[in-house]
TrEMBL record:
Needed co-factor(s): pyridoxal 5'-phosphate
PROSITE patterns in the record: AA_TRANSFER_CLASS_1
One example of a Gene Ontology biological process annotation: amino acid metabolic process
Name the record gives this protein: Aminotransferase
UniProt KW Coiled coil keyword: no
Length: 393
């Protein structure tokens, strides 16, 4: 006799208060339609390079099917630390400073749960990845959005941050190269943010999952590599985007031994460890996968230029993305809201993208297009968007 029970009343109010992801709704509609070109998904269209897949197959043949250490295979932690040294000259200790997680998603979740006590505030520049605010709220913290302005190329300044600091502010979360804008931050901009973090004694969570995907001569700067930032930063990265390994679910966190030990406590009770097969593949990605990654990055760069020129010529004002694989055109010239634009474009032209307000209120007036799809599909999508925009005017 369960018919009369209102199950919603049994669900925690914290979960009730979190809105569903604004990305999914349009995918659900698109999934029912034919001939849809999707610029909606933030997922590489490449299959994981064969050498990486093969290492996993070989691992299985050898019988690697067990749990690993909670912190992850030592071999993988060593490769992760070696990568930080090679790329950014930062010294991390494999035994104490790194935790292998189930994607950056898990690392984000446990980083928030590790540092936020109920009521603690965390500054989150917007527009941003849809999970940031939800993870902060689920951890019992209070996410405080800080709008990043197009006038500042979607970067965040200490002045923007100062305007939102209170005596409850405990942390700052930055995510550059940025999803959804494609913005990257210069060393000077990052140093200004680091001084702000020191001034207010904040922990900084730096989500650098798109760090390998930069274009046009930009080189990613690791936040933890800035003066005084290594111990204060929880650096997050993973394999999903750069190595086309979304389904393998491997990410990692790097920080000081105390933070990593505390994160490991949550991880060991909730996750135990990341899958061994995927960890074996991740070792191969770091040892021998860079050449494949570089090839994919150069392909994304071609697509980036194609979509930037195409949407600009179609009459949409575009901020030129320098990282990740998204572009965030301004659609206000059409007279439509972000949601109207996305919905009408899907219905009339069968192109799926994501309304900008899914990434925070200040994303209103924009839409996010992912260019992690083929040149042929991007070209066809641009033609359809141009047709749509002309008919809006
Ligand atoms: N961080 C950002 C900025 C993302 O865009 C995503 C996925 O889209 C994630 C984290 C989650 O990545 P993972 O697949 O490693 O969980």
């Amino acid at each position: 006799m369960t018919e009369n029970i209102d199950w919603n009343k049994r669900i925690s109010p914290v979960v009730h208060a979190i809105p569903p992801s604004g990305i999914r709704r349009f995918f659900d509609i698109a999934a029912e339609m034919e001939d849809v070109i999707s610029l909606g998904v933030g997922e590489p269209d490449f299959i994981t390079p064969w050498a990486i897949r093969e290492s996993c197959v070989y691992g299985l043949e050898q019988g690697y099917t067990s749990y690993t250490a909670n912190r992850g295979l030592l071999e993988l932690r060593e490769e992760i630390c070696a990568l930080q040294k090679r790329n950014f000259n930062i010294d991390y200790e494999p035994k104490t400073d790194v935790l292998v997680t189930v994607g950056v998603s898990e690392a984000l979740d446990i980083a928030m749960r590790t540092i936020l006590a109920p009521g603690d505030e965390i500054l989150i520049p917007e527009p941003c990845y849809v999970s940031y605010k939800a993870c902060a709220a689920l951890a019992g913290g209070v996410p405080v959005p800080v709008p990043a302005k197009i006038e500042n190329n979607f970067s965040i300044t200490p002045e923007d941050l100062e305007a939102h600091v209170t005596d409850k502010t405990k942390a700052l979360l930055i995510g550059y190269p940025n999803n959804p804008t494609g913005a990257v931050l210069s060393r000077e901009q990052l140093i200004a943010i680091s001084r702000f973090a020191v001034k207010h004694d904040l922990i900084v969570i730096s989500d650098e999952i798109y760090g390998d995907l930069t274009y046009g001569g930009e080189r990613h700067i690791c936040f933890a590599g800035l003066p005084e930032m290594k111990d204060r930063t929880i650096l997050l990265n993973g394999f999903s985007k750069a190595y086309a390994m979304t389904g393998w679910r491997i990410g990692y966190a790097l920080s000081n031994p105390d933070i990593i030990a505390a994160m490991t406590k949550i991880h060991q009770y909730t996750m135990l460890c990341a899958p061994i097969t995927a960890q074996i593949a991740a070792v191969e990605a770091l040892r021998n996968g860079e050449k494949y990654m570089k090839k994919m990055v150069s392909e994304y760069d071609k697509r980036r230029r194609l979509i930037y020129d195409g949407l600009t010529n179609a009459g949409l004002k575009c901020f030129e993305p320098k990282g990740a694989f998204y572009i965030f055109p301004d659609i206000t010239s059409t007279g439509l809201t972000s949601e109207e634009f996305a919905e009408k474009l899907l219905m009339k032209e069968h192109v799926a993208l994501v309304p900008g307000n899914a990434f925070g209120e200040c994303g209103e007036g924009y839409v996010r297009c992912s260019y992690a799809t083929s040149v042929a599909k991007i070209s066809e999508a641009i033609a359809r968007i141009e047709h749509f925009v002309q008919h809006c005017r």
